[in-house]
Known about the structure:
Layout: E1 2-6, H1 12-22, H2 37-47, E2 51-58, E3 61-75, E4 78-90, H3 99-113, E5 118-121, H4 126-131, E6 135-136, E7 139-145, E8 159-161, H5 167-180, H6 189-195, E9 202-208, E10 211-222, E11 232-241, H7 244-255, E12 261-268, E13 287-288, E14 292-293, E15 297-300, E16 303-306, H8 309-315, E17 326-333, E18 342-349, E19 352-356, E20 363-368, H9 369-376, H10 382-387, E21 392-393, H11 399-405
Parallel strand pairs: 4-5, 11-12, 17-20
Antiparallel strand pairs: 1-2, 2-3, 3-4, 5-16, 6-16, 7-12, 7-15, 8-9, 9-10, 10-11, 13-14, 17-18, 18-19, 20-21
Helix pairs in contact: 1-2
Amino acid sequence: xxxxxxxxxxxxxxxxxxxxxxxxxxxxxxxxxxxxxxxxxxxxxxxxxxxxxxxxxxxxxxxxxxxxxxxxxxxxxxxxxxxxxxxxxxxxxxxxxxxxxxxxxxxxxxxxxxxxxxxxxxxxxxxxxxxxxxxxxxxxxxxxxxxxxxxxxxxxxxxxxxxxxxxxxxxxxxxxxxxxxxxxxxxxxxxxxxxxxxxxxxxxxxxxxxxxxxxxxxxxxxxxxxxxxxxxxxxxxxxxxxxxxxxxxxxxxxxxxxxxxxxxxxxxxxxxxxxxxxxxxxxxxxxxxxxxxxxxxxxxxxxxxxxxxxxxxxxxxxxxxxxxxxxxxxxxxxxxxxxxxxxxxxxxxxxxxxxxxxxxxxxxxxxxxxxxxxxxxxxxxxxxxxxxxxxxxxxxxxxxxxxxxxxxxxxxxxxxxx
Length: 418
């Protein structure tokens, strides 16, 4: 018989071989203790109250595991509790036995029972998680830029190297940015500690009048050490800024590294980032058809899943859905979580949503939970879903109003890795 339960300290003897088999050669974001991997996981298990480790057991044999994360996320300026899952691992001898599916099903119900309406994860395979109802979020673009192609405004007089005295100011800057940015996740206490724990990480910041208004976290990667000990790439891990002035001086700092750095590698969900750069080409000299220059590589970032549709609209009762006045019946299909499937009648008055127990809708829409999750998070427009035949509309005359209803000001931005 299969049982899913929270891991005990003794279970980590079984957990480490399992996780090593699932993620060989992976560096795990864990407390630095000087001990072995088991001790580091045990420390995270005991000290990080924002996460929990769970395992799927069959007759006390550990077949799979996952790490649940209790987060707070900015959802259209509403700080909502959300559930994240990471390190989903299955014993290599028990693949294709629905271990992962059972773990994910438990994960969804775990948070639904705690009245959370949104869950999220970083996918290892998009198709697998789409089948489980997770919708694609904002794309991530990786730039590989020559430092001299960042704009150099001629001054970086407010740029400092962050010391222990500045740590709280850095975290305050991140929190202010989170409060203004849809999709951002507040740093947990453990994440805040780990941010300053890696000796290979460097942090510089824009500091003015005793306040940090932007910062960079980065590390160096040596290139061809046997040939040239002084050639490096600079890998940006976190880039936060609140003002154009902070952004400008941080870009000037990056530009000034050109004498030693060959490429700055930066992952961003900013779709307009290429406008900043003198030359956004990635250095591979690849041409797309019709002589179009390749400027970045693109990947799928965070995937989202709504696990309680009526609860979500209750959570967002103060959000303005496009200023529209309209009554919509939303029919959601959810095979994995049938208690989330069904019809939700929502009346929008001047953009404010309220649930109705009964009534006649102006229009009915029908779509699966993955596409609904992408739509409600603002990762895709209603018009595009309709163009792709991924949503059904009872009356096509309402297509424009529905597109305006769900049109976000901003796509979700997430810088949290888990």
